[in-house]
Amino acid sequence: MKIIIAGAGAVGTHLSRLLSKEKQDIVLIDEDHDKLGKMESYLDIMTVNVPPTSITGLKNAGVGNTDLFVAVTPDESRNMTACIIANSLGAKKTIARIENYEYLLPKNAQFFKNIGINSMICPEMLAAKEIVSSLKMSWIRQWWEFGGGALVMLGSKMRESSTIVGKKLMELGRDIPYHIVAIKRGNETIIPRGTDEICLNDIVYATTQREHLEELQHTFGKDSFGKITDMTIMGGSRIAVKAAQYAPDNVNVKIIEADYDRCLWLTEHVGDRVMVINGDGRDIELLKEEGITKQHAFVALTDNSETNILACLSARQLGFKKTIAEVENVDYISMAESLDIGVVINKKQIAASHIYQMMLDADVSNVKTLSFANADVAEFTVKEKSYVTRHKVKDIGFPKGFTIGGVIRDGHGMIVNGNSEIMANDHVVVFCGGMIKKIENFFN
């Protein structure tokens, strides 16, 4: 598959890094020669030093036989223009990074498709939705819903209070209402077998049905974690604004912003239900004065990754049960996890998941990136007479690095075992420690 990425900024370089691992034919274009030189030196990609909106430059880059053209420069207008030109020159699919949320309204989709833009992504909006999703359960680090919530997948860190720490998976029994699909231990991601043991401080990823969440909370030793009724956001960024707007009605939201003029702007744009406070979110006395307690979720969304990490670290030490940090420097993610700061949000990785979904030939309706685990979760729709329908799960023979987390059939979620059988039209949730495209043919 040939993919052209226009823009060697933060999102473009991360996409190039992700997609180059898939052994795809990647071309990265940008007018900044220095940025391209750094990328070409350590990634197996081709670079072209041209402006993304240059017709001649796009032709020279081979846009006429491109399967996917992705424009992710910081400039929304340039991205849209580049996609329109690429489409007219023969690109099969185009994606533009945008900032104007109005463009994403369903009523506008056909208009943009008609002018050559197949899809648009707004990384800030996607990140805000991830933040709000992670607030559903205070004891969960990452949360995904499949089949409208029929099946959920979650990640949680194991503490001394967990009843499964020190046990091998084979010792947990066959009738447990959850399936452990992955274990993150240090920098290693393990797709566990029955002989693997769950250790203290592991991040365990499991699938289950909603009705068993309370039982799983007890098993994971998280009984002391209550419901989140308040969210305090440090930093009045665009992500903060959308997160405040997306927050459920039963969650009270406060935004702490150091810049006075930004506070005035926020007051006019976030609505009456959000309280805006002018101050430093790292100021412990300010938190106490404003009645921000340990039962609040603390979300650090400033433009500085280091500040967000340190703020969440301080919040954790103060006893906050739920902390979320925006960490845009990918190199800091492992460090953030080792410091135990809670949930990490990285809008580049989130955007990459959505773009990656368009590369897949199989019917994949949902792809999520596990920030800490360096892996993905994909939801495949099984086609008639596909390979997976002809064998029991234990005999399918997925390559190393893949495991089935569960199946959704007629709207009902099911945990699978080796003797389970998959049927046409099932939605299958697969944990992918390797490249998703390796198993597409199993579902086609």
Major β-sheet, in short?
Answer: 6 strands, parallel
The unreliable regions are: none
Rg measurement, Å: 22 Å
Q: Mean of residue pLDDT? A: 87
Number of strands: 22
Number of helices: 14
User: What spatial order of strands do you see in the largest sheet?
Assistant: 3-2-1-4-5-6
Helix content: 25-40%
Distance between the termini: 18 Å
Structural class by sheet pairing and helices: alpha/beta
- Percent strand: 25-35%
Q: What general form does the structure show?
A: globular
Domain RCK C-terminal: 141-222, 365-444
GO cellular component, one term: plasma membrane
Protein name: Trk system potassium uptake protein TrkA
Keywords: Ion transport, NAD, Potassium, Potassium transport, Transport
Explain the overall architecture:
- The chain has 444 residues and is an alpha/beta fold.
- It has 14 helices and 22 strands.
- It has helices at 10-20, 33-42, 55-60, 76-88, 109-114, 123-134, 213-219, 238-246, 260-269, 284-289, 305-317, 333-338, 347-357, 440-443; strands spanning 2-6, 25-29, 46-48, 68-71, 93-97, 119-121, 142-146, 151-157, 178-185, 188-190, 203-208, 230-234, 252-257, 274-278, 297-300, 322-326, 343-345, 364-370, 375-381, 402-409, 412-414, 427-432.
- The strands form 4 sheets. It has a 6-stranded parallel sheet with strand order 3-2-1-4-5-6, with helices on both faces. A 6-stranded parallel sheet has the order 14-13-12-15-16-17, with helices on both faces.
- It is globular and about 65 Å long.
- The two termini are 18 Å apart.
- The mean pLDDT is 87.
